[in-house]
């Protein structure tokens, strides 16, 4: 009689429900711990790419100045309609340095003898260059909202407020040395100085600057800084008596709902070459026939401006100033070095970093 041998009891058994839940919980915790690190690593890589973009732009500007003798102007003056004080449009400083950025073919396609918005130039104006985009900004690719015009995240430094004849104030007085300007008083934070004061940056419309003329030193003066594609609106000022929006950079900045983006190759300015450019004028909105329907996050007709910023506004407080999607603002100096600036830096310090001849040097902190 054959007896079957007893089946051996397996040493392995399945997970109980409790054990399975514990394993799932552990995996969830590990994922929760890992994801922020991955996101931080990705943002660090994007920030490094943005820094590299700025460094390349700085090198292109230095090479341009070396071959041409001056930096390019913020934008060339060209009157579309002499009877319209808000109708000037021509090529920006970025258009001029395209060969130095290995974009010679695009440069050759531009007709600099005509307006930037002329029919022959229009196809080239639609090109969106990756080297002019910050990879941390999710809004820089909405070309449909800007009527197809290519935009950029990098803006040249105009200084405090753009004046045709620079931004100078008389010694020992708050009176402007420029009789054309509507801003007769000095910027806040500079009221007590007894020395002549010039708060202009290296880039002004129709004006070319030699690096050798930057008295504060090229390593101490900002050439180009970041700007968010959609811009910012400033938080409510804590002090109602403040006369400059730039003096309140407290609070959480909000991204604007009606877009004011910087176009890359075409520049818009208010006023003709005999007047004062005013980048805050709503008359600078992009004209027909582009007929843009709104800029992300959308809400109104898109407005395109020359790729410049002004220090009248503190960092991350208003669309006209410098702004960044990083936790710091990155900017390239005149020697091609890239600095990271705290988003809450005192705006007097930021003005001094951007003014090229105010006789104040802000050293890089270690």
From TrEMBL:
Transmembrane segments: 20-38
Region of interest: Disordered: 171-202
Domain DUF1559 stretches: 39-346
Gene3D superfamilies in the cross-refs: Glycoprotein, Type 4 Pilin
A UniProt-annotated Pfam family: SBP_bac_10
Keyword entries, A-Z: Membrane, Transmembrane, Transmembrane helix
Start-end of Polar residues biased regions: 171-195
SUPFAM superfamilies: Pili subunits
Family matches, as NCBIfam families: IV_pilin_GFxxxE
Name of protein: DUF1559 domain-containing protein
Organism per entry: Blastopirellula marina
């Amino acid at each position: 009689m054959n007896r079957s041998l007893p089946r051996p009891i397996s040493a392995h058994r399945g997970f109980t429900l409790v054990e399975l839940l514990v394993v799932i919980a552990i995996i969830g915790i590990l994922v929760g711990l890992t994801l922020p690190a991955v996101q931080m690593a990705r943002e660090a890589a994007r920030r490094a790419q943005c820094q590299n973009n700025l460094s390349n732009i700085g090198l292109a500007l230095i090479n341009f100045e070396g071959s041409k003798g001056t930096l390019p102007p913020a934008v060339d003056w060209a009157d579309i309609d002499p009877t319209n004080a808000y109708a000037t449009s021509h090529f920006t400083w970025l258009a001029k340095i395209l060969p130095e950025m290995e974009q010679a073919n695009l440069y050759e396609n531009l007709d600099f003898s005509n307006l930037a918005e002329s029919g022959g130039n229009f196809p080239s104006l639609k090109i969106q260059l990756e080297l002019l985009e910050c990879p941390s900004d999710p809004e820089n690719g909405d070309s449909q909202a800007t009527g197809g015009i290519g935009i950029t995240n990098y803006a040249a430094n105009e200084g405090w407020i753009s004046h045709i004849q620079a931004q100078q104030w008389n010694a020992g007085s708050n009176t402007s040395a420029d009789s054309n300007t509507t801003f007769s008083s000095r910027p806040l934070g500079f009221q007590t100085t007894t020395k002549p004061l010039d708060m202009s940056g290296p880039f002004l419309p129709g004006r070319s600057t030699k690096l050798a003329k930057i008295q504060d030193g090229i390593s101490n003066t900002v050439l180009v800084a970041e700007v968010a594609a959609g811009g910012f609106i400033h938080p409510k000022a804590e002090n109602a008596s403040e006369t400059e929006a730039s003096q309140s950079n407290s609070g959480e900045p909000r991204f604007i709902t009606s877009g004011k983006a910087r176009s890359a190759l075409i520049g818009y300015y208010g006023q003709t070459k005999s007047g004062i450019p005013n980048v805050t004028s709503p008359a600078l909105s992009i004209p027909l026939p582009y007929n843009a329907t709104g800029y992300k996050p959308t809400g109104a007709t898109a407005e395109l401006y020359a790729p410049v910023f002004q220090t009248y506004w503190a960092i991350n407080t208003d669309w006209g100033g410098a702004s960044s999607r990083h936790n710091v603002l990155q900017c390239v100096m005149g020697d091609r070095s890239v600095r990271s600036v705290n988003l809450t830096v005192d705006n007097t310090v930021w003005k001094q970093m951007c003014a090229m001849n105010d006789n104040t040097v802000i050293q890089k902190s270690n």
